Amino acid sequence: MDGTFTQNDIRHIVEADKAHVWHHLTQHKPFETSDPRIILEGKGMRVWDQNGKEYIDAVSGGVWTVNVGYGRENIAKAVYDQLMKLCYFAQSAGSIPGSLFAEKLISKMPGMSRVYITNSGSEANEKAFKMVRQIAHKKYGGKKYKILYRDRDYHGSTLAAMSAGGQDERNAQYGPFAPGFVRVPHCMEYRKEELGLGHLSGRDFGIAAANLIEEVILREGPETVGALCLEPVTAGGGVITPPDGYWERVQEICRKYDILLHIDEVVCGIGRTGTHWFGYQHYGIKPDFVTMAKGVASGYAAIACCVTTEEVFEMFKDNAEDPLDHFRDISTFGGCAAGPAAALENMRIIEDENLLENCTAMGERLMGNLRALMDKHAVIGDVRGLGLFCGAELVADRETKEPVSESQVAQVVAECGAQGVIIGASNRSVPGRNNTLCFSPALIATADDIDAITQAVDAALTRVFG
Could you name the domain of life of the organism this protein comes from (predicted)? Predict the structure, then answer.
Protein backbone atom coordinates (compact mmCIF):
# COMPACT_ATOMS: atom_id res chain seq x y z
CA MET A 1 0.00 0.00 0.00
CA ASP A 2 1.08 3.62 -0.47
CA GLY A 3 0.47 4.56 3.16
CA THR A 4 -3.05 5.95 2.61
CA PHE A 5 -5.69 3.63 4.03
CA THR A 6 -9.37 3.72 3.14
CA GLN A 7 -11.95 2.29 5.52
CA ASN A 8 -12.22 -0.72 3.20
CA ASP A 9 -8.45 -1.21 3.35
CA ILE A 10 -8.48 -1.12 7.14
CA ARG A 11 -11.43 -3.52 7.38
CA HIS A 12 -9.62 -5.94 5.08
CA ILE A 13 -6.47 -5.72 7.22
CA VAL A 14 -8.43 -6.39 10.40
CA GLU A 15 -10.27 -9.36 8.89
CA ALA A 16 -7.03 -10.81 7.49
CA ASP A 17 -5.46 -10.46 10.92
CA LYS A 18 -8.38 -12.19 12.64
CA ALA A 19 -8.37 -15.01 10.10
CA HIS A 20 -4.66 -15.72 9.82
CA VAL A 21 -2.37 -14.06 12.41
CA TRP A 22 -1.37 -15.86 15.60
CA HIS A 23 -0.47 -13.04 18.00
CA HIS A 24 2.18 -13.32 20.70
CA LEU A 25 1.08 -13.74 24.33
CA THR A 26 -2.58 -13.45 23.35
CA GLN A 27 -5.76 -15.42 24.02
CA HIS A 28 -7.64 -15.21 20.70
CA LYS A 29 -11.11 -16.27 21.88
CA PRO A 30 -12.23 -12.63 22.40
CA PHE A 31 -11.47 -11.88 18.73
CA GLU A 32 -14.47 -13.99 17.75
CA THR A 33 -16.64 -11.05 18.82
CA SER A 34 -14.22 -8.10 18.82
CA ASP A 35 -11.27 -6.81 16.80
CA PRO A 36 -7.59 -7.04 17.70
CA ARG A 37 -5.69 -3.79 17.95
CA ILE A 38 -3.73 -3.05 14.79
CA ILE A 39 -0.97 -0.44 15.04
CA LEU A 40 -0.74 1.35 11.70
CA GLU A 41 1.91 4.00 12.26
CA GLY A 42 4.42 5.38 14.75
CA LYS A 43 6.26 8.66 15.09
CA GLY A 44 8.50 9.63 17.97
CA MET A 45 6.73 8.54 21.16
CA ARG A 46 3.31 8.16 19.51
CA VAL A 47 1.51 5.36 17.67
CA TRP A 48 -1.89 5.23 15.93
CA ASP A 49 -4.28 2.29 15.71
CA GLN A 50 -6.77 1.24 13.03
CA ASN A 51 -9.42 3.54 14.51
CA GLY A 52 -7.17 6.58 14.28
CA LYS A 53 -6.67 6.69 18.06
CA GLU A 54 -3.37 8.21 19.13
CA TYR A 55 -1.37 6.76 22.03
CA ILE A 56 1.71 7.74 23.96
CA ASP A 57 3.77 4.55 23.96
CA ALA A 58 5.20 4.17 27.47
CA VAL A 59 6.59 0.67 26.80
CA SER A 60 8.68 1.25 23.65
CA GLY A 61 6.85 -1.06 21.30
CA GLY A 62 5.19 -3.16 23.98
CA VAL A 63 8.36 -5.02 24.98
CA TRP A 64 11.09 -2.48 25.81
CA THR A 65 12.49 -2.27 22.28
CA VAL A 66 12.08 1.02 20.37
CA ASN A 67 14.68 2.95 22.39
CA VAL A 68 15.15 5.86 19.95
CA GLY A 69 11.48 6.20 19.01
CA TYR A 70 9.51 5.61 15.82
CA GLY A 71 10.02 7.06 12.35
CA ARG A 72 13.82 7.38 12.32
CA GLU A 73 14.47 7.96 8.62
CA ASN A 74 18.25 7.72 9.03
CA ILE A 75 18.03 4.17 10.37
CA ALA A 76 15.62 3.16 7.61
CA LYS A 77 17.97 4.65 5.02
CA ALA A 78 20.98 2.87 6.53
CA VAL A 79 19.10 -0.43 6.29
CA TYR A 80 17.98 0.29 2.69
CA ASP A 81 21.48 1.24 1.56
CA GLN A 82 22.96 -1.89 3.14
CA LEU A 83 20.33 -4.21 1.67
CA MET A 84 21.02 -2.84 -1.78
CA LYS A 85 24.75 -3.41 -1.33
CA LEU A 86 24.58 -6.78 0.44
CA CYS A 87 21.48 -8.16 2.13
CA TYR A 88 22.94 -11.34 3.58
CA PHE A 89 25.86 -13.66 3.80
CA ALA A 90 26.37 -16.38 6.39
CA GLN A 91 28.23 -15.15 9.47
CA SER A 92 30.98 -17.67 8.73
CA ALA A 93 32.27 -14.77 6.64
CA GLY A 94 32.48 -11.13 7.66
CA SER A 95 30.62 -8.04 6.43
CA ILE A 96 31.26 -4.32 6.55
CA PRO A 97 28.41 -3.46 8.97
CA GLY A 98 29.07 -6.56 11.07
CA SER A 99 32.73 -5.66 11.58
CA LEU A 100 32.10 -1.96 12.23
CA PHE A 101 29.21 -2.66 14.60
CA ALA A 102 31.25 -5.17 16.60
CA GLU A 103 34.07 -2.63 16.91
CA LYS A 104 31.65 0.10 18.01
CA LEU A 105 29.86 -2.13 20.51
CA ILE A 106 33.05 -3.37 22.13
CA SER A 107 34.21 0.26 22.52
CA LYS A 108 31.27 0.68 24.93
CA MET A 109 32.07 -2.50 26.89
CA PRO A 110 35.49 -2.33 28.57
CA GLY A 111 36.73 -5.81 29.40
CA MET A 112 34.67 -7.50 26.69
CA SER A 113 36.14 -8.52 23.35
CA ARG A 114 34.09 -10.67 20.97
CA VAL A 115 30.61 -10.29 19.44
CA TYR A 116 28.57 -13.28 18.25
CA ILE A 117 25.67 -11.88 16.20
CA THR A 118 22.34 -13.67 16.21
CA ASN A 119 18.68 -12.69 15.78
CA SER A 120 16.82 -12.81 19.12
CA GLY A 121 17.41 -12.53 22.84
CA SER A 122 16.36 -16.13 23.41
CA GLU A 123 18.88 -17.30 20.85
CA ALA A 124 21.64 -15.06 22.25
CA ASN A 125 21.15 -16.69 25.65
CA GLU A 126 21.14 -20.15 24.06
CA LYS A 127 24.55 -19.37 22.54
CA ALA A 128 25.96 -18.53 25.98
CA PHE A 129 24.47 -21.72 27.45
CA LYS A 130 26.05 -23.79 24.68
CA MET A 131 29.41 -22.11 25.24
CA VAL A 132 29.23 -22.95 28.95
CA ARG A 133 28.40 -26.58 28.19
CA GLN A 134 31.21 -26.87 25.64
CA ILE A 135 33.69 -25.32 28.08
CA ALA A 136 32.58 -27.90 30.65
CA HIS A 137 33.55 -30.68 28.25
CA LYS A 138 36.78 -29.03 27.13
CA LYS A 139 38.12 -28.13 30.60
CA TYR A 140 36.26 -30.17 33.20
CA GLY A 141 35.47 -33.52 31.65
CA GLY A 142 31.83 -32.49 31.26
CA LYS A 143 31.29 -32.15 35.01
CA LYS A 144 30.97 -28.36 35.40
CA TYR A 145 27.84 -28.08 33.29
CA LYS A 146 25.11 -26.67 35.54
CA ILE A 147 23.75 -23.20 34.90
CA LEU A 148 22.19 -21.26 37.76
CA TYR A 149 19.38 -18.79 37.12
CA ARG A 150 17.32 -16.58 39.42
CA ASP A 151 13.72 -16.73 40.57
CA ARG A 152 11.62 -14.12 38.70
CA ASP A 153 14.23 -13.56 35.96
CA TYR A 154 13.37 -14.30 32.32
CA HIS A 155 15.79 -15.36 29.59
CA GLY A 156 13.65 -16.27 26.62
CA SER A 157 10.99 -18.50 25.13
CA THR A 158 12.96 -21.36 23.57
CA LEU A 159 13.07 -24.58 25.58
CA ALA A 160 16.61 -24.15 26.91
CA ALA A 161 15.93 -20.49 27.75
CA MET A 162 12.75 -21.55 29.52
CA SER A 163 14.78 -24.14 31.42
CA ALA A 164 16.56 -21.09 32.85
CA GLY A 165 13.28 -19.24 33.39
CA GLY A 166 12.30 -18.02 36.83
CA GLN A 167 8.69 -17.29 35.89
CA ASP A 168 6.62 -20.39 36.47
CA GLU A 169 3.47 -19.24 34.68
CA ARG A 170 5.44 -18.63 31.48
CA ASN A 171 6.90 -22.13 31.81
CA ALA A 172 3.64 -23.93 32.61
CA GLN A 173 2.64 -26.71 30.18
CA TYR A 174 5.95 -26.58 28.26
CA GLY A 175 8.03 -29.10 30.22
CA PRO A 176 9.89 -31.28 30.65
CA PHE A 177 12.83 -28.92 30.41
CA ALA A 178 16.53 -29.39 29.79
CA PRO A 179 18.43 -30.81 32.77
CA GLY A 180 21.24 -28.98 34.50
CA PHE A 181 19.50 -25.66 35.12
CA VAL A 182 19.14 -24.76 38.82
CA ARG A 183 17.18 -21.90 40.37
CA VAL A 184 18.53 -19.47 42.98
CA PRO A 185 16.41 -17.05 45.06
CA HIS A 186 15.46 -13.55 43.93
CA CYS A 187 16.94 -10.41 45.53
CA MET A 188 13.80 -8.29 45.95
CA GLU A 189 14.06 -6.34 49.18
CA TYR A 190 10.37 -5.43 49.16
CA ARG A 191 9.58 -9.17 49.36
CA LYS A 192 12.48 -10.07 51.67
CA GLU A 193 10.20 -11.99 54.02
CA GLU A 194 9.84 -14.63 51.30
CA LEU A 195 13.58 -15.23 51.60
CA GLY A 196 13.62 -15.51 55.38
CA LEU A 197 15.55 -12.23 55.52
CA GLY A 198 12.84 -9.96 56.87
CA HIS A 199 15.09 -8.78 59.69
CA LEU A 200 17.68 -7.29 57.31
CA SER A 201 17.74 -4.19 55.15
CA GLY A 202 20.03 -2.22 52.84
CA ARG A 203 23.52 -3.58 52.30
CA ASP A 204 23.09 -6.28 54.92
CA PHE A 205 20.11 -7.62 53.00
CA GLY A 206 21.95 -7.39 49.67
CA ILE A 207 24.88 -9.44 50.92
CA ALA A 208 22.59 -11.98 52.56
CA ALA A 209 20.53 -12.32 49.36
CA ALA A 210 23.72 -13.03 47.41
CA ASN A 211 24.79 -15.56 50.02
CA LEU A 212 21.64 -17.53 49.22
CA ILE A 213 23.23 -18.17 45.81
CA GLU A 214 26.31 -19.59 47.52
CA GLU A 215 24.09 -21.93 49.51
CA VAL A 216 22.69 -23.34 46.26
CA ILE A 217 26.20 -23.74 44.82
CA LEU A 218 27.34 -25.66 47.88
CA ARG A 219 24.24 -27.85 47.79
CA GLU A 220 24.73 -28.68 44.10
CA GLY A 221 28.51 -29.04 44.38
CA PRO A 222 30.77 -26.22 43.11
CA GLU A 223 32.57 -28.69 40.84
CA THR A 224 29.30 -29.11 38.88
CA VAL A 225 28.33 -25.43 38.46
CA GLY A 226 29.61 -23.78 35.28
CA ALA A 227 27.77 -20.44 35.10
CA LEU A 228 25.37 -18.05 36.79
CA CYS A 229 22.89 -16.23 34.50
CA LEU A 230 21.21 -13.09 35.87
CA GLU A 231 19.49 -9.93 34.65
CA PRO A 232 21.19 -6.80 36.05
CA VAL A 233 17.71 -5.49 36.84
CA THR A 234 14.93 -8.09 36.75
CA ALA A 235 12.49 -6.99 34.04
CA GLY A 236 9.19 -8.81 33.52
CA GLY A 237 9.43 -10.40 36.94
CA GLY A 238 8.60 -7.06 38.55
CA VAL A 239 11.30 -4.48 37.67
CA ILE A 240 13.52 -5.52 40.59
CA THR A 241 16.57 -3.33 41.18
CA PRO A 242 19.38 -5.08 43.07
CA PRO A 243 20.07 -4.04 46.68
CA ASP A 244 23.36 -2.48 47.75
CA GLY A 245 26.14 -5.01 48.22
CA TYR A 246 24.41 -7.68 46.14
CA TRP A 247 26.45 -7.58 42.95
CA GLU A 248 29.76 -7.15 44.76
CA ARG A 249 29.12 -10.31 46.73
CA VAL A 250 27.80 -12.20 43.67
CA GLN A 251 31.08 -11.55 41.88
CA GLU A 252 33.09 -12.73 44.87
CA ILE A 253 31.11 -15.97 44.93
CA CYS A 254 31.59 -16.59 41.20
CA ARG A 255 35.34 -16.06 41.44
CA LYS A 256 35.61 -18.22 44.54
CA TYR A 257 34.05 -21.22 42.80
CA ASP A 258 35.33 -20.60 39.23
CA ILE A 259 31.84 -19.90 37.91
CA LEU A 260 31.32 -17.93 34.69
CA LEU A 261 29.07 -14.87 35.04
CA HIS A 262 26.45 -14.36 32.32
CA ILE A 263 24.59 -11.03 32.35
CA ASP A 264 21.34 -10.92 30.37
CA GLU A 265 20.99 -7.35 29.04
CA VAL A 266 18.21 -8.11 26.57
CA VAL A 267 16.01 -5.47 28.25
CA CYS A 268 18.52 -3.26 30.07
CA GLY A 269 21.11 -2.90 27.32
CA ILE A 270 21.82 0.01 24.96
CA GLY A 271 20.91 2.87 27.26
CA ARG A 272 17.65 1.77 28.89
CA THR A 273 18.97 2.28 32.44
CA GLY A 274 20.56 5.69 31.73
CA THR A 275 24.10 7.03 32.37
CA HIS A 276 25.74 3.85 31.04
CA TRP A 277 25.22 1.80 27.89
CA PHE A 278 24.46 -1.32 29.91
CA GLY A 279 22.76 -2.11 33.19
CA TYR A 280 25.67 -4.13 34.56
CA GLN A 281 27.95 -1.11 34.27
CA HIS A 282 26.09 0.60 37.14
CA TYR A 283 27.34 -2.07 39.53
CA GLY A 284 31.00 -2.60 38.64
CA ILE A 285 30.31 -6.08 37.28
CA LYS A 286 32.97 -7.83 35.19
CA PRO A 287 31.02 -10.46 33.27
CA ASP A 288 32.21 -13.32 31.09
CA PHE A 289 29.13 -13.19 28.83
CA VAL A 290 26.74 -10.33 28.05
CA THR A 291 23.66 -11.02 25.95
CA MET A 292 21.49 -8.31 24.38
CA ALA A 293 18.72 -7.82 21.84
CA LYS A 294 15.72 -5.47 22.01
CA GLY A 295 17.30 -2.00 22.01
CA VAL A 296 20.36 -2.95 19.93
CA ALA A 297 18.69 -1.62 16.78
CA SER A 298 15.54 -0.21 18.42
CA GLY A 299 13.41 -2.69 16.47
CA TYR A 300 14.35 -1.34 13.04
CA ALA A 301 15.96 -4.68 12.15
CA ALA A 302 16.36 -8.01 13.91
CA ILE A 303 19.67 -8.34 15.73
CA ALA A 304 20.89 -9.79 19.01
CA CYS A 305 24.37 -10.49 20.37
CA CYS A 306 26.25 -12.75 22.72
CA VAL A 307 29.37 -10.84 23.76
CA THR A 308 32.28 -12.55 25.53
CA THR A 309 35.66 -11.78 26.99
CA GLU A 310 38.79 -12.67 25.05
CA GLU A 311 39.47 -15.34 27.68
CA VAL A 312 36.23 -17.12 26.80
CA PHE A 313 36.91 -16.74 23.08
CA GLU A 314 40.42 -18.19 23.40
CA MET A 315 39.01 -21.39 24.90
CA PHE A 316 37.49 -22.22 21.53
CA LYS A 317 40.69 -22.06 19.50
CA ASP A 318 43.28 -23.52 21.84
CA ASN A 319 43.47 -26.82 19.93
CA ALA A 320 43.17 -26.08 16.22
CA GLU A 321 44.02 -29.68 15.32
CA ASP A 322 40.80 -30.95 16.89
CA PRO A 323 37.85 -30.63 14.44
CA LEU A 324 35.45 -30.40 17.38
CA ASP A 325 37.33 -27.73 19.31
CA HIS A 326 35.73 -24.56 17.87
CA PHE A 327 32.23 -23.28 18.65
CA ARG A 328 30.20 -25.30 16.15
CA ASP A 329 27.15 -23.09 16.00
CA ILE A 330 25.29 -21.05 13.41
CA SER A 331 22.48 -18.50 13.47
CA THR A 332 20.91 -18.26 10.02
CA PHE A 333 19.70 -14.69 10.28
CA GLY A 334 22.76 -13.64 12.23
CA GLY A 335 24.10 -13.18 8.71
CA CYS A 336 21.50 -10.56 7.76
CA ALA A 337 23.45 -7.36 7.16
CA ALA A 338 20.47 -5.11 7.96
CA GLY A 339 20.77 -5.76 11.70
CA PRO A 340 24.27 -4.39 12.30
CA ALA A 341 23.64 -1.55 9.83
CA ALA A 342 20.60 -0.48 11.84
CA ALA A 343 22.45 -1.00 15.13
CA LEU A 344 25.32 1.28 14.07
CA GLU A 345 22.95 4.11 13.20
CA ASN A 346 20.95 3.49 16.38
CA MET A 347 24.11 3.89 18.47
CA ARG A 348 25.07 7.05 16.58
CA ILE A 349 21.68 8.60 17.37
CA ILE A 350 22.02 7.76 21.07
CA GLU A 351 25.44 9.43 21.14
CA ASP A 352 24.63 12.49 19.01
CA GLU A 353 21.36 13.26 20.80
CA ASN A 354 22.78 12.63 24.29
CA LEU A 355 20.05 10.10 24.98
CA LEU A 356 21.88 8.42 27.87
CA GLU A 357 21.80 11.74 29.71
CA ASN A 358 18.16 12.32 28.75
CA CYS A 359 17.27 8.83 29.94
CA THR A 360 18.84 9.56 33.32
CA ALA A 361 17.06 12.91 33.71
CA MET A 362 13.67 11.67 32.51
CA GLY A 363 14.05 8.50 34.59
CA GLU A 364 14.51 10.63 37.69
CA ARG A 365 11.40 12.59 36.75
CA LEU A 366 9.41 9.39 36.19
CA MET A 367 10.52 7.95 39.55
CA GLY A 368 9.68 11.24 41.26
CA ASN A 369 6.21 11.27 39.71
CA LEU A 370 5.61 7.65 40.70
CA ARG A 371 6.67 8.36 44.28
CA ALA A 372 4.23 11.27 44.35
CA LEU A 373 1.50 8.88 43.19
CA MET A 374 2.54 6.50 45.95
CA ASP A 375 1.91 9.27 48.48
CA LYS A 376 -1.55 9.77 46.99
CA HIS A 377 -2.63 6.18 46.33
CA ALA A 378 -2.31 3.60 49.11
CA VAL A 379 -2.57 0.86 46.50
CA ILE A 380 1.03 1.55 45.44
CA GLY A 381 3.17 -0.47 47.81
CA ASP A 382 6.60 0.06 46.23
CA VAL A 383 8.25 2.00 43.41
CA ARG A 384 11.45 0.73 41.79
CA GLY A 385 13.54 1.61 38.79
CA LEU A 386 16.71 2.73 37.05
CA GLY A 387 16.73 5.15 34.14
CA LEU A 388 13.62 4.85 31.98
CA PHE A 389 12.91 1.39 33.32
CA CYS A 390 10.52 1.69 36.26
CA GLY A 391 7.83 -0.25 38.09
CA ALA A 392 5.09 0.40 40.62
CA GLU A 393 3.91 -2.61 42.63
CA LEU A 394 0.23 -2.56 43.55
CA VAL A 395 -0.95 -4.07 46.84
CA ALA A 396 -4.31 -4.46 48.54
CA ASP A 397 -2.74 -3.73 51.92
CA ARG A 398 0.58 -2.00 52.58
CA GLU A 399 1.04 -3.71 55.92
CA THR A 400 0.62 -7.26 54.68
CA LYS A 401 1.85 -6.47 51.14
CA GLU A 402 -0.96 -8.62 49.77
CA PRO A 403 -0.90 -8.13 45.98
CA VAL A 404 -3.91 -6.83 44.13
CA SER A 405 -5.36 -9.26 41.59
CA GLU A 406 -3.97 -9.53 38.10
CA SER A 407 -7.39 -8.57 36.77
CA GLN A 408 -7.25 -5.29 38.71
CA VAL A 409 -3.82 -4.56 37.26
CA ALA A 410 -5.26 -5.25 33.80
CA GLN A 411 -8.05 -2.76 34.53
CA VAL A 412 -5.47 -0.07 35.31
CA VAL A 413 -3.66 -0.81 32.04
CA ALA A 414 -6.95 -0.66 30.14
CA GLU A 415 -7.95 2.63 31.79
CA CYS A 416 -4.62 4.15 30.76
CA GLY A 417 -5.17 2.88 27.22
CA ALA A 418 -8.59 4.53 27.14
CA GLN A 419 -6.81 7.80 27.93
CA GLY A 420 -4.37 7.26 25.06
CA VAL A 421 -1.39 5.97 27.08
CA ILE A 422 0.00 2.46 26.63
CA ILE A 423 1.68 1.12 29.77
CA GLY A 424 2.84 -2.39 30.65
CA ALA A 425 2.39 -4.76 33.56
CA SER A 426 3.82 -8.01 34.81
CA ASN A 427 1.31 -10.63 33.73
CA ARG A 428 0.97 -14.42 33.60
CA SER A 429 4.54 -14.76 34.85
CA VAL A 430 5.00 -15.25 38.60
CA PRO A 431 2.12 -16.97 40.44
CA GLY A 432 0.39 -14.51 42.77
CA ARG A 433 2.89 -11.76 41.96
CA ASN A 434 1.66 -10.30 38.69
CA ASN A 435 0.95 -6.93 40.27
CA THR A 436 3.57 -4.49 38.95
CA LEU A 437 2.88 -1.68 36.48
CA CYS A 438 5.83 -1.34 34.09
CA PHE A 439 7.12 1.79 32.37
CA SER A 440 9.81 1.94 29.71
CA PRO A 441 9.24 4.92 27.41
CA ALA A 442 11.71 5.65 24.63
CA LEU A 443 14.96 7.39 25.57
CA ILE A 444 13.72 10.45 23.68
CA ALA A 445 10.91 11.07 26.20
CA THR A 446 10.32 14.67 27.27
CA ALA A 447 9.15 16.02 30.61
CA ASP A 448 5.70 16.56 29.08
CA ASP A 449 5.62 12.92 27.95
CA ILE A 450 6.56 11.66 31.41
CA ASP A 451 3.96 13.86 33.08
CA ALA A 452 1.25 12.73 30.64
CA ILE A 453 2.06 9.09 31.39
CA THR A 454 1.84 9.46 35.15
CA GLN A 455 -1.26 11.67 34.94
CA ALA A 456 -2.99 8.84 33.09
CA VAL A 457 -1.88 6.37 35.77
CA ASP A 458 -3.19 8.71 38.48
CA ALA A 459 -6.60 8.87 36.85
CA ALA A 460 -6.65 5.10 36.21
CA LEU A 461 -5.82 4.25 39.82
CA THR A 462 -8.59 6.57 40.98
CA ARG A 463 -11.12 4.91 38.68
CA VAL A 464 -10.15 1.34 39.60
CA PHE A 465 -9.43 1.71 43.33
CA GLY A 466 -11.14 4.94 44.29
Answer: Bacteria
- pTM here? 0.96
**111-163 pLDDT, tens digit each:** 999 999 999 999 999 999 999 999 999 999 999 999 999 999 999 999 999 99
Domain made up of 37-68+354-465: CATH architecture: Alpha-Beta Complex (3.90)
Of the options 3.40.630.30, 3.40.50.300, 3.40.50.150, 3.40.640.10, the CATH number for the domain spanning 73-352: 3.40.640.10
pLDDT in tens, 380-398: 999 999 999 999 999 999 9
DSSP H stretches of helix in 68-201? 73-85, 96-107, 121-140, 159-163, 168-171
Side-chain half-sphere of 113: how many Cα atoms within 13 Å?
8
Q: Identity (one letter) of the amino acid at 245?
A: G
Of 101, 124, 60, give the one whose Cα is nearest residue 347: 101
